[in-house]
Protein 1
Amino acid sequence: MNEANTDDGIDVLVLGAGMAGLTAARALAERGVRVTVLEARDRVGGRVFSEKTIEGVTIEHGAEFVHGKPPELWALLHECGVTVSERDGSMLREDWSGGLGEDEDQGDAFTALSKLEHWDKADISFAEWLEQSDVPEEDRQALIGYVEGFNAADAKRIGVKALGVQQAAEDAIEGDRAWHVHGGYSQLAEYLADRVKELRGEVKLGERVVSVRWAAGSVEVRTNSRTFRAAKCVVTLPLSVLQCTDAEARVSFTPEPEALGHAKRLAMGQVVRFTLVFGERWWERSKAISKKALGDMSFLFTPQRMPPVWWTRHPEPEEAATLVGWVGGTRMSELIGKSAEELGAAACAALAEVFRIDEAVVRNSLFATYTHDWARDPFSRGAYSYVPAGALDAPAAMCVPEADTIFFAGEHTETSGHWGTVHAAIGSGLRVARQILGEI
């Protein structure tokens, strides 16, 4: 039997200690609101998840890059005192004949995406749009790979209107630039959690939400261990958790808020990513391309292989050499469910071919492979959200409070086009705090 918490000292319950929930909790606590954050995991951060490995390397399992210069994220970076490195090295690409060269400017192909900013016809999927477009056949696979990989999406589902909004949003914040956080992205989540506690709020770990019962001005949240009550509730659970229909795993809402109907119209993207930790930067031995290009390598694209995208930490100094493999969207199904060892073995074989180096050299340099299965993680059930055709209004609809009692936040509630990003989660947390405080 659950132990009832009859303490009326909680003004707002926040479900989820990811970046959205912690941002909202900190903003409310700073204004004197008594807030309690409930988190199912044994850590804060949600899909921001940094790990210190036994090799002494801090790796990212989830969010990694600071995309562009969104002010809310940069303000937090400066407040936390963390340092960052901009990714400005060489980008290499394996061509279809197996040759390795520096990535050519694909501006002509990607100019097609900028046309979507002005799309004023019926919303259709990107695949449908591509079929009726004048984009050359030789450019189409590259565009599909980019749209699916970057958005973790299915090209047959993601809407062109959302892509157009996203394109404009990225242009506004220099979204073509990216930075890496020294010491791990989780520092931001941990900082926010500490601030909540300093302001006399609570962050409770290991509290898996089972049900939410509510009426105007009153909320009762039952977890795996007890029951919490408050006047208002902020729901920042990931989109796929909200969409879950499994009777034993889902979070039940009574009555069901209208926002959940809109959540079902959105889609959760899937990703497989893993980090290879090596004893040396063995790729610099390759004769396939110039030493300078190899020494400065930041990104590597291998479109005919799995995964098709790799990156290093250049120009950031690091404790050991690392390569991250990434595949998002429909192609990730080829790797889903594979163990770290299986991913590492396949990666060594593929990379040896790309760089024309003896596979034994690559394997012998490998310390370990690290990965996290976000699709099977019961508290995320995927990577990040995207907007299917016909659902562009759904994120804004989710932002409407229910009886000034239930509020939704999270990167999937973003309305300006930055879905799937840390700064979208932060922005949604700030927005919901202002709603509760009556400022918007």
Protein 2
Amino acid sequence: MESNNKEQILVRITGQDRPGLTASIMGILAKYDVEILDIGQADIHNTLSLGILIRVEEVHSGQVMKELLFKTTELGVNIGFSPVSDDEYEAWVERQGKNRYILTILGRKLSARKIEAATKVITSQGLNIDSILRLTGRTSIRNPQKHVRACIQFSLRGTPKDRKELQASLMKLSSEMEMDFSFQLDNMYRRMRRLICFDMDSTLIQTEVIDELAMRAGVGDQVKAITERAMRGEIDFKESFTERVALLKGLDVGVMKEIAENLPITEGVDRLMYVLKRYGYKIAILSGGFTYFGEYLQQRYGIDYVYANELEIDEDGKLTGNYVGEIVDGRRKAELLKLIAQVEKVDIAQTIAVGDGANDLPMLSEAGLGIAFHAKPRVVANAQQSINTIGIDGVLYFLGFKDSYLDEKGRN
């Protein structure tokens, strides 16, 4: 039977980090059979902050603190002790049952002003910050990276007073202060994503291939105007798609190879695909564009699934102005996401969708994590997460990846 003559003490150690420090501390605690109730450590610019909540026999507590004080003096670090009553400890335990959320803040640079604005939103919603973690690597002042990025992850506890208001406040800050946010419930699904589905045009590549084809067919302005209206959600996608394809009639199919070999790949795609493949994600392209270009990217990056639209070609190798099969529109993208998830035996909560246009909204809503990427205003307004400030590899931070997980190839 456990003795009641025990007390809780919070031990706080700060100072220059050095190898063996934690082992030395634990050696003293182990000698007196001390119970560890909680422990956490952070290391900022080689400066250690270590907290240990211990439960120790009252008869030994004085000696334990004395030995810890001697050892930390010897190691050149600071130590402090705070008693924690049984009532305070039980109140802390009770709080552990509250919901946990992850707030990720992302941008080219993160200033104190930006972090202040984000934490004010957190506080106003009654959430408490449990921990703060930097996901991006250290950057050189003298030799900065070409594509600099900064990301901080907050672990939060509590329940938002108004989830919609919280989301709206974060999205407002995103547009005003050039930073991106992801606010997610911290559950098992967030840590076990397995399937990611991408739009292609203006997402994985920085163009709309139908516009590229149209320019070579001499109908660029006409098609581009229809494309922009469709992506803004002003006209039905199927209707606009049929009109645009008809304008391509007579174009030589050889043009498609030249366009594919010169596609402007979005910043961060190489890094993103390398990491996703390395960590076992299944990857799909679900595109309102064309199969030919999706298959080109499939070969380049080892993508698992490609669903897009097939252009009809006549015997002379010319586009007929028609398409073959069912149009991949917004509704079809959402259906395909669910279908692939079933085939791969992946829960829908473990899926991710990334896109920029109005026809991506159904799959963004269906996925466990829907991310609007450099998206149109209507899409951003309806998305839970968005990335507008950096490349598409920003998706990795919303999945919880740290730069330190990646090897040299993955950091580029």
Protein 3
Amino acid sequence: MDQDGPPAAAEIEQPVPFIERGSYPRRSGNLVRPLVDSGPAFRRIGEAVESAQHSVWITVTFMALDFQMPDGRGTFLDVLDRAVDRGLDVRVIFWRPNPQSSGYGQAFAGTSADFDLLAARGSRFRARWDRAPLAYCHHQKSWLIDAGQASETAFLGGINLTFAVVEPGHTGGGQRHDIYVEVTGPSASDVHHNFVQRWNEVSELNTAWGVWGHEDEATLPFPERSSDRRGNSIVQIQRNIHAGCYRDAHAAPDSPPYPIADGERSITDQYLVAIKAARRSIYLENQALPVPEITGELEQALKRGVHVVLLVPGVPEEYLSEWRRRPERKAFFDPLEALGRYENFTLTGIAGRTRFGDREYVYVHAKIMLVDDVWATIGSCNLHSNSLFGHSEMNATVWDPDVVQALRCQLLREHLGQDTQQLDDLSAMQLYQRIARENAARWEASDFEWQGLACSLNPATYGESRKR
């Protein structure tokens, strides 16, 4: 239920249904600002940190010590240390890998060397480390500014503190495409609740190397009220949380308690509900190929006449190439190949120019879906089985045609080199397909003079090779 009482008529008539089971309710009155690519995202986050008045709380999955924030702000640790020097309450939850998950990426795992580094720097921010069960990871990437204050602002998405920042345009190949979203208003308080729930119950709290910057601190209090209205967007903060990670079912503001010890799958549930509800268009960007549960629903949408565009890395993930060589994995690729038999389906990558004048794929790391120009989800959740059924994830799901259409136009302006503001969503997806197919034909003919970056891929062979 919405925080303001019974749903208004406009909410009841939403074409994409709300998820009723989850930690957080849908909340109206939010201001939503998608941030496309790491340059604009980390520039805006840097500005927010520098203007923070009370606190900066962050959840981190992957981090490189030499990662540089834009505009000369220095490393991630430099940004934190300066914030502490200004008197802010700075806290970070870092993911600590298990042996089964240690190969996923570069983590600041809280080793003795990491503690020595923090000591040598004189770092005074507070940090705690958190393991996930088995081969899973805590995959949430979030920044919360001024928790519980009038200036409370949240950022969440999929961008890691690892690769060099990328500015809009992707004029060069070999770069990374990714998305964050800024949320101010009542739903930012749910990002606040998520941080408190995790901070108070991190797995490593009572271990020798589980805490930095404080010893006997009491637990953080949960937010008791949501932030004031700041805009017109309906937003629901949704999570995937593995069962057993956390136990405290303290309710979010204006919401009933949720039994988090049993786990949560509101992101997974929302993806399936949204695909079922689509009537005209579905636009996805994802680092991973969808699992069969998702591709099955996408095929049903295609049968209804919905036009589907799926943007993935042009060079597949290494594990996909390995799976293509294993007959027992054929069932994973069959649903994707089935999608490719529909004329209204487009599998695509994006490729920029290199310094040699040819083309090279841009790595797609984003995790978003847009439906019918009225609904979007943006966050950390990939469409592979780990994210959907094991990792800790967090997405902001938005019901606001103005926000969604503007994001669609921004992305397609970058990928197609054309303004689609005057087109409806279906016409825009059809244009995407045409340009992507034309560009693929040009690349095959060694013609690198394209319109935009989009380049269609063959669903029947995707994953067979990691080279163009």
